[in-house]
Queue: 4 jobs
Job 1
Amino acid sequence: MSAAKDFISNLFEGNDKIVLTGLFRIRAVGETTFTTWEHADIDPVQIDVIVCVLNFRHLAVFGEIGSRYMPIALVLDGEAQFSELYTTYQWISAPTIEEIAQVLSTIDFDKLQNDFKEYQWAVKEEQANDWYLEHTMQEHLKIMDAKTPLEADTKWDKMTPKGKYEYFKIWTKKK
């Protein structure tokens, strides 16, 4: 993750509108890919290849070679643009440009964004539940405007994640 953040901040230096919204690692099935003799001792080194999703719309692909980064491809609008460095590098084994482009084309930005939104509300609900459970039963009655503990907890449990989070925000501001 830190390598991806570092690579993106160097690639889009000074642009704080670019947000890392997804991260994938490209791996091959069966044969070893992205191998080189650079930084190798006895056996070839396999390079970690990372795909960064930017703003749920764009892709940046880089390889991590030791403490350095190799830009591989950038997909801003349309087809992937591959770096000259990647295409001319002396690989022992590496996927073709077409194979990488095919892998990149399988990334579903809409699904990623929907998954993010679902996960975001799940995290906020967990935060609100933790906050609610930290309070005494008397406070539960007050928060939920209920007469019995069972009524308060039943009301809380029936609330949506967004509703729970709204209560959490309102009540934490009152204190």
Job 2
Amino acid sequence: MDAKGQHLGFVNHATRAVSWPGWRSPLVQVRLLMGAWAVAALWFLFSHSPAHRESEFNPLAAALATNLSPDQGYRPTIHLNAPPKAPAPSPASPASPSPAASALAASARKAALDAAHAPSWSHLHPSLRHEVSERLASFPSTPAVRLRWSNTHAGNAASLDAFHSRWRGQPLGAPADFIIGNGHRAPDGAIEPTARWRLGNPTDAITICLIGHPGHVSPAQQAAIGELIVCLESRIGTLAIHSSQPTPPTMLAAAE
């Protein structure tokens, strides 16, 4: 018997029950009959509700939602009413350095060769050379050299350390090991160690930051890069030289 026949049978039994001669009051019979019809209507609505239909097993839906897992061979994995799988995001390709940064890395090696043949040091004073030698002894492996610009018009090690520790929440200050001035707030070509170089843990790269905007390197800054690389390589051997994208202006603008 289908669901509709069951509902009609239930209503007929209820009608005969309330029509029994013992119930002599017509008012009572009318109320009971209305109640029976109300119960039957509620049961009919519940049995045909979407939630009730979804709870029943549907072989067709199960067959359509069958997903074959390649790692399980021929065994299918069945998901009832399985949602469609979202496509996997493609891995982001690493950003290539800008032409200015690539040119800086290429010219740094030439500057180091020129500094190695120079008769004297012009930018790296003896006390800093001694500090570099002692500090490099704590490096577990040979680091690389990373070059970058501050992307500011002016600055020095003290101003960049103060800005990054106070406004950027970096306890060791500027994210660089050496700052090379451009004549604004620091002499042109002046090499200054930062708090990170003196207090931070050795990393896999020594970062040299040039004060100025991308593509602008003064002759004094170029010579300072060469001297610093020669000093580093005389202690730990030949270093790989890389360049990174310049910092957005908003990060260091307050340090000018």
Job 3
Amino acid sequence: MGRFSSSVKRVDFLLAIGSVARYPVHGFLEAAPAIISQGSAMLLVDVYLDKSPIQGIGVFAKNHIPRGTLIWKLDPRFDRVIEVDTYESETGPVKSYLDRYSYPDRRDPAYIVFEADDARFMNHDDDPNCDVSSPEETYALRDIAPGEEMTCNYNHFFENGFDFLGDRHP
């Protein structure tokens, strides 16, 4: 059972995913324009979502963010820690959603982390402006200008190099 006193039941799991998503789990790609217009959710700095030159939707700074600023912190009220067994038992749209927006919990390999805020749209960059080396906090590696896309290095989440969860589980 690990660090948690109760296992996530399927109904609770689906409600948790649905309650934090701004759109239904099924058909989430169709809602992209609505997501872009809604702005940020729960990061510790003001951000907005917009079309990314890197890939799909990205997270952009609304204001100047000084180097060293804490920009995200794991918060169990909003970020879901899900047992790997629960993740692996899912199929279809729920599994696809988790494949895209979850990553291994570096504190305990029996779990994955689903970020329920706009941080889930942060794109990969080999030379990022955000430091995700801590599993519980993210800091600005350098000054980030207003309108600049906020990026991180996904390799911090995967021991053998970056890939989406679904790419590792056929």
Job 4
Amino acid sequence: MIKISLISLAILVSCLVQTFGNPADKTGKWYYGGNAGISKNNDYLRISFEPLIGYNISSKFSSGVKAHYSYIKYDNDASDLSYNNYGGSVFARYSPITNGYLHSEFAYENYDKYVYNSGTQKYENSRVWVPFFLVGAGYKQPIGSNASLYAEVLVDLIRDKNSPFRKWEPIFNVGAAVGF
């Protein structure tokens, strides 16, 4: 499954480069950035980091890699559970209009999975790898000569049974990048 997805992505990238292959007219072809987040309420804490590095293949097309990490903690009367989730992804972006882009990404995440054991009356931890194929669109807003903020909305086309996302639930990302 992963090999087929990566081969399909490589073919897609090759076709797009051939079709839209104007050399990048930017002075810096590499860009980097990502996002970080924190969410907190009474019994829930989530901290996440997602650095990225990308390469401008042409003035309209870029590709890159991301690393993913999140720490989640539930602390209430019924349970005290913490999760350390991590993984990585490869992505491609095509910009058909100024500041707007289409995004596709194959991600593979390793999640903590807790299952309640009625015999011991405790939660037991195991780990599971979950694939995602994310597609969507985004908007970038320049904030200087070489930096920008971005926001994107993605959906997962694989919808693996272990995915934390429900059927067609949108995924919202906001971040910053230098050189993008």
